[in-house]
Amino acid sequence: MRSEELKAVLEIESASFSRPWTEQHFQYEIDSPFGHPMVALADDGTLAGYLCLKIVLDEAEILDVAVAASHRGKGVGRLLVQWALDFSRERGASLLFLEVRAGNVEAIGLYRSFGFRESGRRKNYYDNGEDAILMEIPVCLQSEEDHAV
């Protein structure tokens, strides 16, 4: 993600969330040595979605992810989550965390398809009273001995 892409990112963000991040939030992630924001571009070059990943020591966290309405159901979210898993693994993270609205059944299904498991719940976390589900997945590389039969 680059600063010049923020206008398109903010359009997707505001269409996706009731309390969207501001331009300053995204700029902070772009500038942070721990932030790894990534965009996905459609074939026509338009911004299809984005994911903000933070890695501190051996822990990674997906802070924000959204896909433009016109690109949902086309694998963009799956591509971004796969990137986050691969990038976290390459950077030596042992776990990847995220938080998702309990009512976001599509996202929860996507995360479970990767092997994310529920690790906790924040009751009434969102302003509408909805719970936040905390999910995690181990991402560390296994040694070749671990693959031996």
From TrEMBL:
Give the GO cellular component terms, alphabetically. Answer: cytoplasm
Q: Does the keyword Cytoplasm apply?
A: yes
Query: Which PANTHER family does the protein's record reference?
Result: ACETYLTRANSFERASE, ACETYLTRANSFERASE YPEA
Q: Which family does the record claim for this protein?
A: Belongs to the acetyltransferase family. RimI subfamily.
The EC number(s) given in the record are 2.3.1.266
Pinpoint the N-acetyltransferase domain residues. 1-140
Q: Which gene encodes it?
A: rimI
What catalytic activity does the UniProt entry give for this protein? N-terminal L-alanyl-[ribosomal protein bS18] + acetyl-CoA = N-terminal N(alpha)-acetyl-L-alanyl-[ribosomal protein bS18] + CoA + H(+)
Which UniProt keywords are listed? Acyltransferase, Cytoplasm, Transferase
**CDD domains recorded:** NAT_SF
Provide a Gene Ontology MF annotation, just one.
Answer: protein-N-terminal-alanine acetyltransferase activity
- State its location(s): Cytoplasm
Predominant subcellular localization, coarse grouping: cytoplasm
**What functional role does this protein have?**
Acetylates the N-terminal alanine of ribosomal protein bS18.
The family database entries (Gene3D superfamilies) matched by this protein are listed as: 3.40.630.30
Pfam families named in the record: Acetyltransf_1
Q: Kindly provide the name given to this protein in its UniProt entry.
A: [Ribosomal protein bS18]-alanine N-acetyltransferase
